[in-house]
Amino acid sequence: MPATTKLVERTKVDLTLRTYLPGIWVGLEVTTRHFARNLSFLVTGRKHGKNPARDQLATIRYPEETRPYPSRYRGHHRLMRREDGQVRCVACFMCSTACPADCIYIEAAEHDDPGIEKAPVRFDIDHLVCVYCGMCEEACPCDAIRLDSGVHPAPRSERQNQRRGLIDLLELGGPSVARQGGKYA
Amino acid sequence: MWTLVGYALLKFALFGLCFVMLLAAVLTWVERKQSALIQDRIGPARANIGPIRLFGLLHLAADGIKSFVKEDFVPDTPNPTIFKLAPLLGFTPALVMFAVIPFGPGDTLVISNVSFGMLFIFAISSLSVYSATLAGWASNSGWAMLGALRAAAQMISYEVSMGLSLIGVFMVYESVNLQQVIVGQGDYFFGFIPAWGIVTQPLAFVLFLTAGIAETKRAPFDMPEGESELVAGYFTEYSAMRFAMFPLSEFIGIVGVASVMAVLFLGGWQIPWIQGSGYFFTALQIGAFAAKVIFLCWVQLMLRWTLPRFRYDQLMDLGWKVLLPLSLANVALTAIVLVALHG
User: Fold this and answer.
1) Among A58, A106, B64, B252, which is least packed by CB within 10 angstroms?
2) What's this model's pTM, rounded to 2 decimal places?
3) Three-class HEC string of B269-323
């Protein structure tokens, strides 16, 4: 195939162009148009029309307004509870083994109920390390960890505070009725 | 004698403080808000007293309080006195030049109706170059020194064409007294076109606007304070209110350029096509002057947020190789036309 050449027509730089005045005028037209339009938005209330790129100001006033998340957004992990409110997790380490980012830290302990072998005393997830892939959720054999809260991990000033522990994760979780070992099996 | 001084002080309080200073202060907010609107943003809107936000106008108060209570840091410099004096040297001339600008008709509605009005403005506004140079010199910092050099070179270069561009105006209206220039703009061409400076001297209008923006050191001529190469230029080392004095005198400079342009090119306090007399009409004329000044401030801010910056050599090229020859040509052309018209 022969190479095709596209001849670009060069703009002829004549005296009127070189004074910059026509260019400045066109530029002023653009900025004035934006200024007038946005001023009308500001005075009459901000939302106008359906096309946000064209019909309203781009600013989202963050703490009061948030950008809408896509429906498949996962957000924070949550740990589910048994029917009696105890944590469903049996500290089997499946999730931390599956985790590609190695962000889950579990400390296992004996459980009082002889039907339940183990339970976590610590279950930390470092949200600075987590890649929100959902592998932990898929690896979990007892529906104990879910990655579907939709809650945005909040910015924190201390790096340590991005590690969320058992209690925080349980707070987001709800009861799950999937069959599991122990008293209710 | 003392009554005269008293009147002058009263007029300064009314015009200088209540109009110029207030407008300059509000312009700091307008600049942020206007740039935001041009760029499809909201701009300052957070400062509030309870539910009162006033479209972010309270940021003025917040900025003022912040400037006054912040630590006033003086760097390790051999010239601390000059360092502390430099902001004042820029602030004072910027404000003093309003002494000869007429804001209404007659001898009374100008702080000092001197016969050499415009020459006084040129003389005083030249002084502000000392502020930039001394600030940079006394800061004992490389960035500040380079910024000061740029500022000095730029201001001196553009002062030349700034002065020359206005000579045509003085030739047409046959005076450098600003009140007489304004009175001269009360005539009409063909019975309906007001004989404003922008009609008689359109080239001078463009030249003076360009040189004026360069004199106030604002974009596209903001070489002295290049963020990427010079940090904040000659006021890099300043903090607190001493720092705030520089932007404030810059904004007063904007009002100054707008006032001079309103007086020389837009007929000052003249309201075209309307005749009248009495106190009410005079108040209307003062209002017309204020409106013209505010409009020209808006135009300057608009230009600042429209145009990209020059390179420094382009800036010097424009000043010496374009503006200067053009303003000289304007003088020659005006002279030829005047001789042809009046013999």
Assistant:
1) A58
2) 0.77
3) CCCCCCCCCCHHHHHHHHHHHHHHHHHHHHHHHHHHCCCCCCCHHHHHHHHHHHH
